[in-house]
Input
Amino acid sequence: MMAKFGAYFLTASNFVLTDAAESIVNVLASSFAFFSIYLASQPRDANHPYGHGKVEYFSVFIEGALIGIAAITIIIKAVYGLFYPNNIHSLLTGAAIIGITGLINGVLGYYMISKGKSIPSMTIEADGRHLLTDMFTSGALVVGLSLIHFTKILWLDSALSIIVALYILYSSYKLVRRSVSGLMDEADFDMVTKVIAVLNAKRRDPWIDIHNFRAQKYGNDLHIDCHLTLPNYLDLIQVHDEVKKVDELINKNVTKTELFIHTDPCVPKCCRYCRMPDCPIRSEAKTEDITWTLDNVIRNKKHFE
Output
């Protein structure tokens, strides 16, 4: 941030100020992200039975909002600069400073995205994507400053500043949209699809069908509740074992997950797609294979309904 503001005071360029102003957001957003990651890592308590992970969505919202405010401020100043241009100078020196800061942010951004996905942490990944955006805007800034230096077209400074600010504003929208979807418990279809793929691949014969499948993210924890249809002649210990196998399968192959599984007893209409061999109560032969899909597992209906 200090390097970019140094470049701005050196060049007096609105285009450089665009990058410098976003750096203020980087510092503020990262400070809040630091606190939110600390809070999200705290164990669940009586007041927060699902843990503190949702604070990460709030953190991403703050970051997106701050980026948006910075972008709008830059656009207003740049529009003013189109009508009342100021003298700019030392553009190549400023471009060199911005280029170095952009490279540093790019390396850090790639690392944070990779780390955010592996943990996983939405806050760290969002902060990494923000830094990656900063790298791209810095690269555009280096090209723009060089262009202004060689063409001597001064109005390009404000015009390019507006273009970059609009890109930053779009990045702000994506972050805010993602955070609001999490706070509103919007379904994560990508995660549900991964879980369904694993269940299909490792499906056991007693798992007759799965329905009313719902998934929610709380920070890096996934919570799933669903209905699992099992043969009605299994005793309580056997039912518990089957539920435990579903739990272990998802936790091992997808992500850290807390499952709440409601078990349903099978009925005669299940027989046509039930895979149980030597079933003592089968009323008709198996005639159909039903592959679990996003469409048939999220419905609150057994597969024959």
